Amino acid sequence: MTAATSATAATPATATTTALDGQVLGWTVSPDRAELVTVHDTPGEEPTIELVTRRIGPDGAPDGEPPRPVTGPLPPDWRVLDWAGPRRLALWRPGRRSQLCVLDLAGDVTHRGEVLGRPLRCRLNARGDVLVLLVVSGADKPELWLHHAGSNSYLPVPDSGGVRRVGAWDADAGVFAADVDRTRFYRHGQAGCVEVAVDQPDDTRVTATAGCAAGRIGLTGTRVTGDTVPGVLDIATGRVRWFDDHPGGTAVDLAPAGTRLLTTTWDQQRHTYQVLDPAGHRTAVLDPGPTLATDVRLTRDERHLIGWHQSPADEPRLTRWAPPDPCPRPLAPRTSTPVGMRWRHRWVPDASGTDLPEWVFEPTGTTATGTVLFLHGGPRGRLKQEHDPVVEAMVRAGWSVVGPNYPGSSGYGERYLDLGRGDWGGVDAAALRRRLETLHDAGQPVCVYGQSYGGYLALRVAAELPHLVAGVAVWAPVTDLPALHTGMTGVRRRWLDDELGDLRLDQRVLWERSPVSQARVLAGTRLLIGHGRSDDRCPVDQSRRLVDLVRSCGADTGLRYLEEPGNHAPADWGPWSRAVVEHFAAASTEGRSGATG
């Protein structure tokens, strides 16, 4: 897993205290599964994090030695990039010229420098040279390049225009996988990279890779029918073995010895995991029940699993399992008390003829005081029963949270996924307007919350039905579609062009579907807006412009704007969640007094 971390990675491991009692924000396990590195938040006025390492046994349990900080506290714009070597971590810092730092688990920096483009993966070759695969925005499409840090040289990877990601990378064989128009395999050497042919059936194409070990790479293939199937590539022969007895599965990890493949299936409710031996026989199954296990990895003994364990009522915790026993064995302490919550997935009839799937999260032991219509980001995202700090805070405060997976959400088939493409704020907003009307008819206050694209939809729906909404809270919303399109370049511009389709050519419709065009209506709404100052996905100017326009319309008491140094998500969800709870409480109270006064 790629964990989000923080700042000056050159700080050696001299800290005498750690944040081990704080929340684990991320984790990563070494390729040999002998070392676990966790990322913790640290207390203080400024948000910082700390990397902590500990040795783990073959079953994934800590071996008894005390955990140790890798570095001192780091600022939040550094991120763990990859395992560069057996005991080497690569960190990177986004920016015009990304900064790369490679350090050992004692905290000593072995390399630090700038790189062009965005790093994706990092490895040390046999001589200890730092090799980085990164994306460079070309004139037409983003391209994959191989950077040799020692010589500061860059070599383009052939036919990699339009690269989306880099998957498995076998350091010994020098082979890595890149997703371009299809999954391609390359072997790198001093002269650059050459594509490696893979022998596979015509009716199945490789669509994803996961894990590499002992000259093998875990694969997910997609049949011409659209069904997925897990498999393994033998690098030496170039042959693929598909496990046809396990249709619908996707590969998520390959054991260090290369003898066990971890696969998962998803049934719109939860992940179920299976461990397959080289013959494709199932050796273990993990079904965590109504809770979720995500980002799961095999341990050294190939009989235990490590991953996130979570539910809507409980924050993610690093956990290990001994399948088929679904009982979680936490590796990190709980930092908060789980909320009393029940949740369920349901389908709601819609006038369009296509029923609307949604999740409902409700407090147990009490009657909800109102409803929050919760809109996920995206637009191709989805809401499921993962932990969300805002949902948790709302349920703790006595609200019922209804989270529609509006048209365009993933997880319900290609047709449903494509309903909103080229129609931002169209079919999706129409479905949400109808859902808002039915929720309002129940007689309790209804507030609307959204993040990113969900924030855009929340503002759009509230502007069209302001009399049905007690309050609105949004984080990092899109507010001005023409300005967003004009300001984007490179990979993000191409993505937005694809998302908007022909809609991008009609400036009038783009403006009409932008919340900034409805500033006068929104000025009469109880409105809370939050945005990260360093947001690289949705520029903070999107919120600033709307705030200025709403205030110019006379919204002095109904508008609150919070801006912080974070990125596309709050650096700390706690203050933001509390602000949302307070805002909705005041909005619903005002709404009731207004209705009776």
From TrEMBL:
Chain ranges of the Peptidase S9 prolyl oligopeptidase catalytic domain: 393-560
Keyword Hydrolase: yes
Domain of life: Bacteria
Coiled coil regions in record: none
Listed SUPFAM superfamilies: alpha/beta-Hydrolases (SSF53474), DPP6 N-terminal domain-like (SSF82171)
Pfam families, sorted: Peptidase_S9
UniProtKB keywords: Hydrolase
Region Disordered: start-end pairs: 55-74, 315-336
UniProt name for this protein: S9 family peptidase
Organism: Actinophytocola gossypii
